[in-house]
Amino acid sequence: MESNAGATMSRREFYGSARENTLWILVVVVGFVFPLLAIRYFPWLDDDATALIRLIAASYTISLLAVFAARRRLFPWASKVPWFQWFAVPVVAVVGALYLIGEFLLLNVVLDRGAPRETRFVVIRRVASDDFRIVPLDRLQAPPSFLWTRHRMPELHVDSVVSVTVRPGAFGHAWAQEYHAVSDDYRSVLRDAHP
After folding, report:
1. Which end of the chain is more exposed for a tag (fewer CB within 10 A), N or C?
2. Could you tell me the maximum CA-CA distance found in the chain, to the nearest angstrom?
3. pLDDT tens digit string along 67-86?
4. What does the angle CA 140 – CA 142 – CA 144 come to, to the nearest 5 degrees?
5. CA angle 156, 159, 165 (to 5 degrees)
6. What CA–CA distance (Å, rounded) separates 156 from 150?
7. Is the CB of residue 86 less than 8 Å from the CB of residue 56?
8. pLDDT at position 4, please?
9. What's the rounded Cα separation, in Å, for the pair 137 and 195?
10. Model-level pTM?
């Protein structure tokens, strides 16, 4: 194969060895699965809607700078195919950003020493076939709603009340530690709280 510069590359140089390809596949798969597992087992319950966007932007920026700095070691063939290197750097940075996001979520939980508090949430609407939007029971009128996946509690439906043990998080981003269904109708819970 020839690049624009006229340098030739062997098939092995271009595609890599089986060991290198296996390692890259593992890195990519774990990179995508790690933050998904962190989100599934430690649900994010932060009122600040922009916090996740800032986390994603910061993680991608850090990852992009790290991949750019290490591009010659990551892509030893880059001198022969420079145009492909500039495609590979931002793509590999996505995987690094996913690792950083998963690590942030995990450390937010592991290092959390804050006191837990029980908060009741109401399911306000179905978003997709298995997902719901929930809102704190005491803030029904001005809801910053949170996404709640039904696989956590398959018996949920709109107007259900869920009791969630909320932890503040080591980095100040609340997460759900435990949860259980309280009632099928939030109106009855409100009536019992204010007789």
Report:
1. C
2. 83
3. 999 888 777 777 777 787 88
4. 95
5. 65
6. 7
7. no
8. 47
9. 16
10. 0.71
